[in-house]
Amino acid sequence: MKMNTYPVQGAGLGLRRSFMDDFNSSQPPEQVSFLEVAPENWIGVGGTSGKKFRAITEKQPVTLHGLSLSIGGPAPLDEAFLYRLKKFIRQHNIRSYSEHLSYCSDDGHLYDLMPIPFSEEAVHYVAERIRRTQDILGQRIAMENVSYYAMPPGEMSEIEFINAVISEADCKLLLDINNIYVNSVNHNYDALEFLHQLPAERVTYMHIAGHYNEADDLIIDTHGADVIDPVWQLLDAAYEKFGVMPTLLERDFNVPPLQDLLIEVDRIRDIQSHWTQYHHEFQHG
Questions:
Q1: Burial bucket for residue 181 (CB in 10 Å: 0-12, 13-18, 19+)
Q2: How many whole angstroms separate alpha carbon 211 and alpha carbon 253?
Q3: How confident is the model at residue 1 (pLDDT cuts 50, 70, 90)?
């Protein structure tokens, strides 16, 4: 088990505007150790919402999970956006920035995350764009393993592609547990075997989320439902293998009241507590 230094700790939650007042109150939910937002939703936002967001970032650790960089896309990298992002990161003391290992634009946004062909050529192309992004921002970024539904052509497996990109780009990994499970069902591979092959020493933090079962062999990654038991079990296995990592609950659709989401955040914390104690006893027993 390798030691890692994380930009955040504990259990996190995606910040929604409907939760702003809860996290700006004198007693914000104590079980939420960090928050995550999409920078595209907040860069340039002023007025009351901008002030509320600034108040939160002054008190709470916040990470960014981008939607629009399209790191694998054919269009030129949006460097103007990256310079605005760099300023935003400094303004709000943002702990980390991540993006999807996919593409979502080609002279216009496609409103979906498209898989990059798993090829050596694509590895070099994407890694160069990640390095350029890191040069502009002056910091390492994290790339997230994504869910996909059509198998892209290429001569590599998904795990080989992810590991090659992260190594060549010398970037971090945002490890999405739900996406491993979704892809393992949709593309018929062993989720645990896949998990064990990832470079744990590069993980910044993890995502966990719910999804929608379209059919027995087709799961859609919606972030619109409760986390299911097999995904909780995969999170448990990740902590057992790699040690406890910061973990964020994603919920983007069918969003219930905050108190309902906090039940799932508490479950993350309970599993973290169990494995923290286990690893401590193992090391000192």
A1: buried
A2: 10
A3: very low
User: For the whole model, what pTM was predicted?
Assistant: 0.92
3-state secondary structure of 11: strand
In a domain, 6, yes or no: no
Counting the structural domains of the chain, the total is 1
**CA separation for the pair 158, 163 (Å, rounded):** 9
Encode burial over 38-54: b for 16+ CB neighbours within 10 A, e otherwise: ebeebeeeeeeeeeebe
Is 214 within the bounds of a domain? yes
Instruction: Please provide the distance, in angstroms rounded to a whole number, between the alpha carbons at the two ends of the chain.
Output: 16
Which pLDDT score, from 0 to 100, does residue 283 have? Answer: 74
Structure confidence by residue, pLDDT tens digits, 34-43: 999 999 999 9
Q: Tell me which H or E stretch contains 114.
A: strand 109-114
Number of neighbouring beta carbons within 10 Å of residue 267: 16
